[in-house]
TrEMBL record:
It comes from Halovibrio salipaludis. This is Amino acid permease. It is found in: Cell membrane. It comes from the Bacteria. It is a multi-pass membrane protein. Keywords: Cell membrane, Membrane, Transmembrane, Transmembrane helix.
Length: 449
């Protein structure tokens, strides 16, 4: 193999079945969302948090429309990077939004890693493991990195196995939790904190974080069998499955813990909810389940994210340095992805990691819908009304979320703003340096053929 061959990413077309794609999607979705977000959502909107999951699902259903239309028309390994490029060409909006997506996925890995740490400590009954949580998270990220170096079959095999264990376990948790609870009624009246519209919108935004794993499926476009039909199907099936599961789990937690207790144990609320219902065994079961789920989520996610960064590098939209490393570009992007994740895991707590992730993700999501609406809706046969509704809904929950965070944690809003400004400035310098005659929207037509 020559040095030149070694630098290009390797993809195996037709290596993922529809079931494999659904497992990959639900694996990433369930990994992050349910274990750590339940408590954070309760903190924002009190007893209405199970409803916030449902309103998140509704918004994601509108959001998914653009991805389904695009992936049916242009299945590719680059997923979102490719969709942005189709809409905006080799321009700053493409690079900026693709990097927002990239960072929101790296952030999701750190979120999983810290959640893994929090639940692992529940196994050993450690109450305050301030230093242990990031240590465990970092160890998990490094392990996932080694698994990802080993190749595709192992990743799909591991992800599928973990996906099955996790799906089964979560469903058992939800139904048993409801079955042993004194009453299934989640009491929406006694509420601490008092629900506000901004709080509900903010909790809905966090709920979207629990569903955004469906976008991972788009990144596997060129590897799924019969991608023009199956990418869209895999997205729809994954979201539908998660709606049912999250609703059941939300009610199970609400039936077993008071809202103040959910908020107090927000980083491991599922384990806490299992204790009154099932005692220590319930806590162990839930902790092991969470550890398995987050580990599986990280393995699948690192795979997809490094894939996306490799694609952006090949499109010459981001600067790339080998730093003297051997191997192909995708191996390098794997290293950068893990290093970034390690830094976030070590220095940020769960709610801040989640906040950064959702701000980046929603802004990128709006850009995708706008790009499809403005430039591609005729080509991919998308209905303008659905696209505009998706933009409005995203904008609403983003505004609600920012409003809540400005009062409760203005620092994280500042960090998000600074990070986006840094991405914008560095990308405009890089692209300006790349080629003075980059295509603008005026000569847009040639991207489409």
């Amino acid at each position: 193999m020559t040095e030149q061959d070694d630098r290009t990413p390797q993809y195996a077309s037709g290596s993922l079945t529809l079931t494999g794609a659904v497992m990959l999607g639900t694996g990433v979705m369930i990994g992050a969302g349910i274990f750590a977000l339940t408590g954070q959502m309760a903190e924002m909107t009190g007893a209405l948090f199970p409803l916030a999951f449902l309103s998140a699902a509704l918004i994601v259903a509108f959001s998914a429309y653009s991805y389904v239309r695009m992936s049916n028309a242009y299945p590719s390994a680059g997923g979102i990077g490719m969709y942005l490029h189709k809409a905006y060409g080799s321009t700053l909006p493409t690079a900026f939004n693709a990097l927002l997506m990239y960072f929101s996925m790296v952030i999701a890995q750190s979120f999983l890693a810290r959640t893994f740490g929090n639940y692992t400590l529940q196994l050993f009954g450690v109450e305050d493991g301030a230093i242990l949580v990031p240590v465990l998270g970092v160890a998990l990220l490094l392990t996932a990195f080694l698994i990802n170096l080993s190749g595709n079959q192992l990743i799909q095999g591991t992800a599928s196995l973990i996906g099955i264990i996790k799906l089964g376990g979560i469903i058992v948790f939800g139904f048993v939790g409801i079955w042993v609870a004194d009453s299934i009624a989640a009491d929406f009246t006694r509420s601490e904190p008092e629900p506000t519209l901004a709080g509900f919108l903010g909790a809905t935004a966090l709920g979207i974080l629990a569903f955004k794993g469906f976008t991972t499926i788009t990144n596997s476009g060129s590897e799924i069998r019969d991608p023009h039909r199956n990418v869209g199907r895999a997205i729809v099936i994954s979201i539908a499955a998660c709606v049912v599961i999250y609703t059941v789990v939300g009610f199970a937690v609400a039936s077993n813990l008071s809202i103040p207790a959910i908020i107090e144990t927000r980083d491991y609320s599922l384990a806490a909810a299992a204790r009154p219902a099932l005692g220590d065994y319930g806590v162990w079961f839930t902790a092991v389940l969470a550890m398995t789920a987050t580990a599986g989520g990280i393995i699948a996610s690192i795979f997809a994210v490094s894939r996306m960064l490799a694609m952006l590098t090949e499109m010459k939209l981001v600067p790339h340095s080998h730093f003297g490393m051997p191997g192909d570009i995708q191996k390098h992007t794997l290293v950068y992805t893990v290093v970034l994740g390690l830094i976030l895991t070590a220095f940020f707590d769960l709610s801040r990691i989640a906040a950064l992730g959702i701000i980046f993700y929603l802004i990128m999501d709006i850009a995708i819908h706008w790009g499809v609406f403005r430039y591609l809706r005729h080509e991919v046969a998308a209905r303008p009304g659905i696209l505009l509704t998706a933009i409005v809904l995203d904008g609403l929950v983003l505004a609600g979320f920012l409003w809540v965070k400005l009062f409760s944690d203005p620092l994280v809003v500042g960090v998000a703003g600074l990070a986006m400004a840094a991405i914008l400035v560095s990308e405009s310098l890089f692209l300006g340096h790349q080629s003075p005659d980059a295509p603008t929207h005026g000569d847009h037509e040639h991207h489409h053929h």
